C-alpha cells in the first residue's frame, strides 16, 4: 500500500512542518513512498525522503532574509514588539532599472537549494525508489504542473524546487522551457488529490494554516502591505478548496487521510525569516504532532459540509 506525505506551502512556517515530519518519521517510524510539496514544502521533501531530519532542521532554524533574497524588497521594522513590513524603495527601484520583472530577487535561495540538496542526494532518492514531487504554477500555460524527481535531471529538479518557492512578484520569476513559473501555491497549495492520483492509499498532510480562521487582519497601511493581504486572502481560500477536494477524493477512492493543521496563527507574514521564531515553530510542530497523532484529524463527515460545498467538490472530482 503506497503511503504519501504531503506538505503545503507556507514560507517560514515550513519550520513547523519540519517538526511534525520529525515526529512522524523518527518517533512513529513512518515509512512513505511518495513525498509531495508545494512552495516551502518542496524544500522539505527531498531531505525527508532520505530521513535526513537533523540536516533539514539545521537548515530551517538557521535561515535569514539574506539566505533567501539576493535583493530583498522588504523593509522590516519593529513596532511595539511586532514586525511590520513595508517596501524598500531603493531595492525595488534598482530591480526595475535592471529590467527585472519582480520587486525582489531570490537568487540566494537557488544557491542554497543547490548547496543543500546535492546531486548525491538526488541519485540516492532515485535509487531508493522514492518519488519526490514538487508543485508549480505555469503562468504561461495557465496550468498547475507537478514535477517528479524520477522524470528530471538534477539541475532541472533544483530549478523546479526553486520555482515552486518563488512567491512572485516579491521573489524571482523562473523562466524555463519558454514558460514562466511561479509559486505552486497559486494553483495548488495542498496537493492531496495529486497524491491520490499517483496511487497513495494512506496520506499524512501537513497544512500550514489553522483549521478555522482565527485572525482579523490589521488594515493595510500602504499598497505593498495591501498586496500581501490580498495574496494571503486568495491563498487561504485556495488551501480550503484543496483540502475539500482532497477529502472528497479520499472518500471516493477509500484513502486513509490525516490532516495536521497549525493549532495557532504562527505569523501574518510568512516571508519574514526569523531564526528564533523558526526554531520555536519546529519544536511546536513536533509537540503538536505528538499530541494529536492518535486522533484521526481528517474524518470525512458530510453532515459538517453544506450541500453547495459537496456539489462543488464532486464536480471537481468528475
Order of helices and strands: EHEHHHEEHHHEEHEEHEHEHH
Give the class from helix and strand content and strand pairing: alpha/beta
- Largest sheet: number of strands, sense, barrel closure: 8 strands, mixed
Mean pLDDT: 89
Shape annotation: globular
Could you give the count of β-strands?
10
- Determine the fraction of residues in helical runs and give it as a percent range: 40-55%
Model regions low in confidence, pLDDT < 50 over at least 5 residues? 296-304
Description:
The protein is an alpha/beta fold and 318 residues long. The chain has twelve helices and ten strands. Helix content is 45%, strand content 18%. Strands 1, 2, 5, 6, 7, 8, 9 and 10 form an eight-stranded mixed beta sheet that branches. It has a two-stranded antiparallel sheet with strand order 3-4. Strand 7 (174-176) and strand 8 (179-183) form a beta hairpin. It is globular and about 55 Å long. The two termini are 24 Å apart. Mean pLDDT is 89; it is low at 296-304.
Please describe the topology of this protein.
Elements: E1 3-7, H1 14-27, E2 34-38, H2 40-49, H3 53-60, H4 65-68, E3 74-79, E4 82-87, H5 89-97, H6 107-116, H7 119-127, E5 131-138, E6 143-148, H8 154-165, E7 174-176, E8 179-183, H9 192-197, E9 202-207, H10 223-253, E10 256-261, H11 275-292, H12 307-317
Parallel strand pairs: 1-2, 1-9, 2-5, 9-10
Antiparallel strand pairs: 3-4, 5-6, 5-8, 7-8
Helix pairs in contact: 1-2, 1-3, 1-11, 2-8, 6-8, 10-12
